[in-house]
Fold this sequence. Notes:
By secondary structure, the chain is mainly α. It is built from ten helices and no strands. The protein has helices at 3-14, 18-27, 41-48, 50-69, 81-99, 112-122, 124-141, 144-162, 168-184, 186-194. The mean pLDDT is 89.
Amino acid sequence: MSVAVLIVLAYLIGSIPTAVWVSKRVYGIDIREHGSGNAGATNTFRILGAKAGTAVMLIDMLKGFVAVKLAIFAPYGFYTEQSVNLQVFLGLFAVLGHIFPIWAEFKGGKGIATLFGMILAIQPLVAVSMVGVFMLMLYMTRYVSLSSITASIAFPLMILFIFREPELSYRIFAIATAFLVVLTHHKNINRLINGSESKVAIFRKRRFRRRKED
């Protein structure tokens, strides 16, 4: 299968608007019209509660994971330098699909869960370490946005100084990821500075009832 086809498939997989479909088909609302307006796991947790938020998060992670694994269909080995480079590109296109989903008027989320799924597929140990950073910050502050930013900044630090990843493309990707996450969270950063950012109570009850069956 050609690289171009794999990249298109990765984007289409990333474009699956999990939060939008769950909110519309199960709860009868459009998640983008509530809370922060983002079609991602964090806003789903905030508006619809832990059950819906967890489902959206896991599926969004799976999108990044599956997109990376498409590299097995490339015309070279999965563990070659070319394959690692392709895995990074496939993951990036899945993240772009999540942020700009063709199936949801190009209005998606911030791509954090999909990005994590991508990293999990390429470097599982790094992904687990990032989860540790995220959960520690979340436990200390209850701010999902701050936890995501902190974990993303820790990502290139781990790649460069702890795990010492040799692949240049992956090192560049890690640094670019930190900048991208900070950039996409600029509104959250402003709210954190002025004290208006919402904290997330993971186990609170959801605000909307599940749509009744016909």
